[in-house]
Amino acid sequence: MTQPIVKVSNLTYYYPEEKEPVLRDIDLEIEPGEFVLLVGPSGCGKSTLGLCLNGIIPNVLGGAIKGRVLIDGVDTRKSTVYELGTKIGIVFQDPDSQLCNLSVEDEVAFGPANLMMDRQEVMSRIDKSLKDVGESEIKSKLIFEISGGQKQRVAIASILAMEPKVVLFDEPTANLDPLGAVQIFALMKALNREKGITIIVIEHNVDSVMSHADRLVLMEDGAIKFNGPPRKLMQERGRFIIDTLGLRIPQVSELALGMKDKGIELSPFPLTVEEAVEGFDRHKGRLEFLPQVRDSAEAEPRKAMVHTDRLSFVYPDGTHAVKDVSLTITEGDVVGIVGKNGSGKTTLTSLLVGLHKPSSGQATVCGLDIGRATTREISGEVGYVFQYPEHQFVETSVSKEVAFSLKAQKLPAKEVGEKVDRVLRLLGLEKLTEKHPYRLSMGQKRRLSVAAMLILSTDMMILDEPTTGQDRRNIENIMEIMLEAKGRGTTIVLITHDMNLVFKYCNRIMVMNEGELVFFGSKAEFCRDFSTIRSSALVLPEVFKLTRLLAERGIPHVPQAYTVEEFMQSTRVR
Amino acid sequence: MPRYSYMKGDSPLHLMDPTWKFLWNFLVVLAVIVNFDILYAALWYVYIFVLIIVVARIPFKSYARAVSFFVGIALFIFLWVVMYYPEGSQVIFEWGPIRTTMEGVLHGVSLVFRVMVIVSLSVLFGMTTDPGRMVESMIQVGRVPYRIGYTAYASLRFIPIYENEAQVITNAHLIRGVGEAGKSFRSKLKLYWSLLVPLLVSGIRRAQVAAIAMDSRAFGAYPRRTIMREIKVSRATKAFVLLHLAIAAAAFYYYIILGHGIQFLG
Hints:
The structure holds 2 protein chains of 2 kinds. By secondary structure, chain A is α/β, with parallel strands linked by helices.
């Protein structure tokens, strides 16, 4: 019997000056070589648990701690952070904050050099670690020259250079594009299977990582709720995880839960598309697919909300961020803009609201010429929700924050009050009116930032990566509100890395690559043209992959479904 | 864009070790300030100017842009000194409180040259010194503890990120109707003021993550750390700096100790 590499017993922890513990009575044992996925709603204490494992808590951050944490047999409280650094390393979400050197080489050398290893040893560790993450060729580059995905791999290499036995990833893919995320997950799997490194991953985006995991640990309110093999937990507790905890599970698992309600049990319970295909194939005799109802709304011509003609923008430093983009967005559209980081998505939407003036070409937004209109004029017609809610907060309380938006309209105080109350109720913020925006939880901040735009009832809303780092419940909450706005005729433009989100809520997809618009069309067109779209950042939704594979197996009338709901609606069991 | 930013190059001044270059800057400043003679100050200015344009091969335009702000300040100082100079006998012009003397004019011109020497030196240093190398040299050659050196590194890394973030926040606030770019001074002030809190909050958060990420990789485990690239200071650099040490010492001795310097101030 091997000794567990991580052993947490009766761990309770209070941050300094907090009365409520963030962690309550945690018991957790992890065997060497295990791959553990740690999930839970935002604010459940999973990141805090991570910091307890490498001794940052309590050795650096302080606070009151009860219970014990043993890493490779060493008590974290009796050890030092730098000694623990050779046993367990942490990779964080934001690639920019965790890298502290100017060049890739220095970054990877950082840990070993701090430990005073001799130069030859450090050199060989640099080469080995960069090779392990597949980035040997960028060794002599500077950090600011490399992409987000590369930064994240350099961060991983800099941890591997310490030769730890355990690597903990704290939402490592939240800032990456879909393919970048898939690559990081594949790298984790390789490190686990080939190098025998124990992996602990904290992640919201579980679709492609669930099947790698040996064990799933679910946290809620600072305590471990479930702890077991992912397949078993998905099968037995899947509904609870989705509905009560408000988390995501892989789409195919969600589908399998739906099929179970209809009387078909897929076995083994699927975690990946391939497993689901096998499962469905075995029951193909009992499946019946209904013809899909296509909405005929496309027929009547609608008003153009945005029209651009060869729109270009060059930054003062010469970066050609938007190149000759011509497009038309019509009233009531929900457009998803996808593409690599730095492909020009945000620059394009900034042009549309007048934050940048076009270098050449022209565009009208809600009837305003963006070359002439001021940002203030355009923002009267177009709401814009930024990626980080804090960036747009300007007031000192929730209700003032929302009321601020109405300032320009010079409405009577009573009317402002009524409107603010209504919007805050709509977003479930009515009990927090006097709280400072910065003191809200992550989900609340996100809702507040949306409320501040929603109250303007503009004809168009632009949302720039509104779901980054949010759990499923928060995401759905925001999107339901957006759909309500759409119901009132608001046109929605959504910049995101989340392909599932795009396929669930958007009717049009726009792909940007190196400043160019390389695709603009419907979901069906996107899937049809997928292999020829010039962008290396995209993936197809799992449900669509499933339907395509089922059709390839010769199962007749498989519907073209993109989401779990669509698939379930058009599937019947005989 | 910072006016002082590093421009890549391979001139002797680019290759010079940053710590020794800094020492050299200090010696030149010392040599310049010990004598008020116009010709003396002008000679030093020409010398530095030649080093910048001919030796370091910095385009005149970049140099001019970098010093333009300080030229304004130098002229202001000149006018100030010239307009009211209580000492001196050769009065050129006198009206009410304004009293311009020949000595005042000479003093003013000399001051302008000295200010220009100091400003040009810092421009030269900024434009020929790779910030990363400077930190490394500070740690190895200057014997600055690496923990302090790394603070400088971190700020070099984070300044562009903060600049970018400040722009994003400005945009977010513009959309919400806080101030309007290019409009009144008051509106601009309001916009900058509103940037402060969000930028501080995210700055603190970022710094916290950075500190945790550094601690997790054994930052500060020992008083010293492995030196990856050993810095060797070339003989030419040492000779160059020592030559200026001799000049500065001689100037100091001759003008201050022996008192041969031209002193306009009493």
